[in-house]
Amino acid sequence: MIIPKLYNGGIEKVASVFSLNLCDDYDQYIYSIMNQDESYDFAVKPIILERRVASGYLGKLLNFFYRIKLLRDIVHQEDIDVVISFGERCNLINMISFIKVKRILTIHSVISVENKSKGFLGFVGGCIARTTYSNAEEVVAVSGVVKDEAEKYLGISNISKIYNGHEIDSIIELGNFEADYKIEGDYIVAVGRITYAKGYWHLIRCFSKLKLTNPNLKLVIVGGVELDGRLEDLKEIVSHFKLESEVQFLGQVNNPYPIIKNAKLLALTSIYEGLPGVAIESLSLGTPVVSTNSGGTAEIVLGDVSCNEINLESEFCKSDFGCITKTFKGDFLKFEELTFEEQQFCDAMQFQLDVDVKGDNLKTRALEFAIENAIAKYRDLIEK
Asked: Which segments constitute the Glycosyl transferase family domain (predicted)?
């Protein structure tokens, strides 16, 4: 398996759960293309490319070819039969290495939007993907939305849909632990890295409006900081709206589940997503979800109801598990008036705060995304 890094990301967490639950019928090798001080657990010790990440286009290109070389070395030395890659960078390495094995690519986001956000490198990556993905033995998308978009963007039709698997019982158990942070009163929680993709500036702006009718409510953001400067921008917005006492940035938390469990709702303001695992984790813990209609979130929150069939221009979508609103355009905003999409998200959060939640129904919904279901489908692809 090829993974982008060891820790602090949704794809890495998915790969960890997959590795730990894959049966003993297979010998595993985990190859991480980046090193980190911390790591999720895996069934075997990961092989890591021990190389300093260079800067600039030339440096990134050299790193890319070093990663390809190491993959080829691993495949030949260990006589590997199947290589599963997680995420776009790893998929490209899997394909450009030209290894003679079964290659299973996994797509974890709406790649046209993700590549657009990466500028020139995203453009190049998209061109390579459209050229090479059709040669893969199997391609997996983590949600129906991701599958449909990828088939159009890549021009291929052999994509399977397999939802990311989750250890539901383990999540529920960890949610019963005492939280690392004591949060007084009612609060909304957001979980995910502080980076452009998560759209946290929208959330803080929405929260500033929500506070007018919920003066005792807090906003808690859990997640490590990416190196794109967004944290300082977010703190500037917090300061402008005088929310220093109400908005808390907790950083990376080893066990976020007690915090999610005790929240009034989980808020997801992502610009683009694949299948946000935190939404499934939240339902496992009995906490409803309010999210934009990005990636496969609607498939989690609404079940068989598709937001594409509902006019989000007029109202947000409601279900027993939460609410779905119109996707944000992705423009970075600070002190302007709330956009239509932001006001709709604010209204959805207020609606969710006012309704009674049946936690058992949410947990039952989460069981549909259990890891056992995902493993069975991947076994079929491996043995195919």
From this structure: 186-301
